[in-house]
Backbone:
């Protein structure tokens, strides 16, 4: 174990929220959108023609499906966080670990939250800055490089279907041992 002075560890639920902070903001927006589009769809069904019904139905389905995609993405990023935290705990700051999570803003946030909880956030953030990552790089790099990403199995697996990861360490117990 490389990390020796473990900072106080937040509850796991707090880490879960921090990792997916941007995703959960968008989740609220998609819920509001789905509600708005649902109201419009209902109105169209009662008072308007087929064209408007189809328009509002498509809008509603778009927002409604995104609610579940955001939840799946948040869960996947939490799995990234747990894996990154274990890796940083075992190896300390390591560029190869950082590179694993550089692909998207959400994955970088997972790595940064894990690093923050181990006292390594400054090193990880500086490394990402050296690699040219800016705060406004929200669109994952692979989406820019490959416009057909949506049709690739790797995209679906890595974005929404990340396998469940069980942390190898109980960081709260380790922290309590270090302060005693």
Residues:
């Amino acid at each position: 174990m490389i990390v020796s002075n473990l900072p106080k560890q937040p509850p796991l639920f707090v880490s879960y929220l921090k990792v997916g902070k941007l995703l959960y903001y968008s989740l609220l927006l998609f819920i509001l959108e789905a509600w708005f589009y649902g109201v419009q769809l209902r109105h169209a069904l009662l008072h308007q023609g087929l064209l408007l019904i189809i328009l509002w139905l498509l809008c509603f389905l778009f927002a409604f499906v995104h609610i579940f995609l955001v939840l799946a993405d948040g869960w996947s990023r939490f799995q990234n966080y747990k894996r990154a935290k274990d890796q940083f705990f075992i190896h300390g700051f390591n560029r190869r670990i950082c590179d694993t999570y550089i692909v998207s803003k959400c994955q970088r946030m997972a790595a940064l939250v894990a690093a923050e909880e181990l006292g390594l956030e400054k090193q990880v953030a500086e490394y990402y800055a050296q690699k040219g990552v800016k705060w406004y790089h929200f669109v994952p790099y692979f989406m820019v490089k490959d416009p057909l990403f949506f049709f690739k199995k790797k995209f679906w697996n890595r974005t929404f279907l990340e396998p469940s990861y069980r942390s190898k360490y109980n960081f709260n117990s380790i922290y309590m041992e270090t302060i005693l």
Q: What stands out?
A: The chain has one domain: 12-179.
